[in-house]
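P.,

For your records, the input lines for the assembly:
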Amino acid sequence: MSLAEILRDLVTANRILAHEEVVDAYGHISVRHPDRPDRFFLSGSRSPELVTADDIIEYDLDCNPIDQRGRAQYTERPIHGGIYKARPDVQSVIHNHAYEIIPFTVAKGVKLRPLLHTSAGLGATIPVWDIRQKFGDTNLLVTTLAQGNDLAEALAKNRIVLMRGHGSAVSGISIQDAVHTAVYLKVNAKLQAEAMRLGGEIIYLTEGEIAEMSKLSQTGHGRAWEYWSRRAGAAKS
Amino acid sequence: MSLAEILRDLVTANRILAHEEVVDAYGHISVRHPDRPDRFFLSGSRSPELVTADDIIEYDLDCNPIDQRGRAQYTERPIHGGIYKARPDVQSVIHNHAYEIIPFTVAKGVKLRPLLHTSAGLGATIPVWDIRQKFGDTNLLVTTLAQGNDLAEALAKNRIVLMRGHGSAVSGISIQDAVHTAVYLKVNAKLQAEAMRLGGEIIYLTEGEIAEMSKLSQTGHGRAWEYWSRRAGAAKS
Amino acid sequence: MSLAEILRDLVTANRILAHEEVVDAYGHISVRHPDRPDRFFLSGSRSPELVTADDIIEYDLDCNPIDQRGRAQYTERPIHGGIYKARPDVQSVIHNHAYEIIPFTVAKGVKLRPLLHTSAGLGATIPVWDIRQKFGDTNLLVTTLAQGNDLAEALAKNRIVLMRGHGSAVSGISIQDAVHTAVYLKVNAKLQAEAMRLGGEIIYLTEGEIAEMSKLSQTGHGRAWEYWSRRAGAAKS
Amino acid sequence: MSLAEILRDLVTANRILAHEEVVDAYGHISVRHPDRPDRFFLSGSRSPELVTADDIIEYDLDCNPIDQRGRAQYTERPIHGGIYKARPDVQSVIHNHAYEIIPFTVAKGVKLRPLLHTSAGLGATIPVWDIRQKFGDTNLLVTTLAQGNDLAEALAKNRIVLMRGHGSAVSGISIQDAVHTAVYLKVNAKLQAEAMRLGGEIIYLTEGEIAEMSKLSQTGHGRAWEYWSRRAGAAKS
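Structure tokens returned:
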């Protein structure tokens, strides 16, 4: 895939995340530079629904803009830089506050776990990171490299890390993969909350089932990407 | 009804199921061939909202395409083949992941039952099938004939079978009937969950009431079909 | 108000009820003839969102059409006839299955009561009618005059009667009044269910507060009617 | 900011509050006169979604119109007058019935508290005012100066006061600030209810965190304002 195609997909992903209500006024998605693993692309400070190609800024992994041209920046770009530094396998990162997941970031002792086959991409373990543990009272925003690195450490080898009272960081091996995971993170959170209220013991996916699903080609992802793109009013890519 | 009308209704049904949020990126509906009971029609691999007449593929009951013409196929077509083979009375099958029903597929010991007169078509008994019981750890997808046959066996003489951690298969005596049942399956699941939370004992429909409703002509279905078609932007058929 | 204006409002009310999701494919609203209290107007059998002036049929209180002209009829018109006969003060009746109220029709011992000032129009008491009590196992539809009369008896002097496993009948002193009550019945049901789940004792409106609100002029209703009409794409009337 | 700009923002705010479902047919937002602190601006009696520049009326703090020109008035303007008199720091007031907050106004002993970083603007304490305590059985509307003053007294130094069985009054240092707080009040109420149902102890924002967030510049508010304006179909301002 060419850089131009990837950047076009990044704009489409912004629209999809807004349309599927993974993000609202806030939240962002980045992609690693396909040729330079020490760089990534992220929009300047705008609500995802409004992001265009002109808003995309290139960054080094310390979150310095390569060519800012006066554009305002997201203050929370260390979420992205921190994860790209710690996890060479990750190609795309989404930070979001999807409403459905927030309760799982603040309810002590309650674990979010995949129970639906399309949410197997969430992985068997979803850690929760609390910025207060290491940094005390803050405005909860991840604005320093130290905070970004600490978040990445909490993510460890997993796909997703929840952020207490704030949201989540979702990683993927491609933009499409990260978007798919972020959408079904939201769906799974909603369904798990509903299932817990029915009063029975819940049957989650087994580790074996999660492993089997990870062997699937991404055909299904392609179908979903086409569908979400159309819904968001973006051309199929 | 001519084959052309039935295929047009099949496309409309795809749009309705998407618009009423019975399906999202995933899910599919098929119809048995009106003249050849050993054949059925199902879209190639696309999200239901995007399905057109050109996507419809004819299959035999072993799920071999009669005329594939290079189109990608749903891997889960054995859901359809399995049910058509076991149940000569069934003319249409819907596989879906409607969010409202998933909790009832994973909450042990909690039974989904009709409580609303328009959901009498769900039938008195709705079994839950767990692919793991016979096939162990899988990716949960019904991709072999053996799995499709096992699912049909769990369905038995009922209208609907829930699939653990996955969704459901809904059967009908016509496309309109299957769509009506799938929509009100979703509605009933939502309302039953809500009613359970109010804390009182729930009054479900009696078997006698379900039987009385099954005697109704499908006038009401016609009214609903017209309504859903318009909402989905499809011409009335 | 002229008959022409009232019939135009009846069409608008159908659209509003559909747009505000008080009705879906099913449900209907009628209005008493302004000059002949022994007559009422009700659409022929169509989903409310699709009703036009040409669909409106005039009925006597035994639910016989005055001028049917081949149009299909709602089978449940005895809901309307029964209430108009028993309650000379009622000028408009809405039958609906709004999803939010169904749980309160099937959860034994749980009473729906107004807790929001805009839902004072629900009245202090909302009885629940179960067709099975007098008529045994039926298809739950109110299709005979005897059933309509029995429902009206359960309504008694109240504004609303819930129907077990089915929905509700809402009465009003005008189309606007009935629509306002039906919308806030739905809202109140949703909010009461939510409030019950918070775990504290609930503070409902007092009878004195309900009485005070009933003295309000209908200025507020006018504001809401204008708002709902616009949302439903109908001209202000 | 010029008066013209502020009035244009007031119209935009009406549209945003309607589109984000903070208000429905009812609810209103006012702004203090930038040059005359003893005056404020508020629409005449219309649903917020329909408010235009021509509907805006100027008031003194006793809620007398300066130039009514025959326009109907909201009866509840003392909510605004009362708060502007008691709180010179407040520049904008929103009265709303957002459905998500109503349960917290009627569930005894249950406190609404911020748990999400974007809802830090709610403040650490959110009092509940019950009109019945001082004024007995009323129609719950705040229609007298005495009632408005009593409400303002309950608000005290906080950002928000809930009103039992009715809604809330939200204050801000600007229109944008009040809108941001009102939107995230609604979001926080929904998320807190959801979190409470998961069964674990809830981690709320600490007072230190709330204080840290209040130091943030309003860059984020600008991003949200742009986003909400676009969604509501209003030009960016």
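Two observations worth noting. Chain A touches chain B at residues 115-118, 120, 187, 190-191, 194-195, 197-206, 208-209, 211-213, 215-216, 219-220, 223-224, 226-228, 230-231 (CB under 8 Å). Residues 194 and 200 of chain A are 11 Å apart (CA to CA).

Regards
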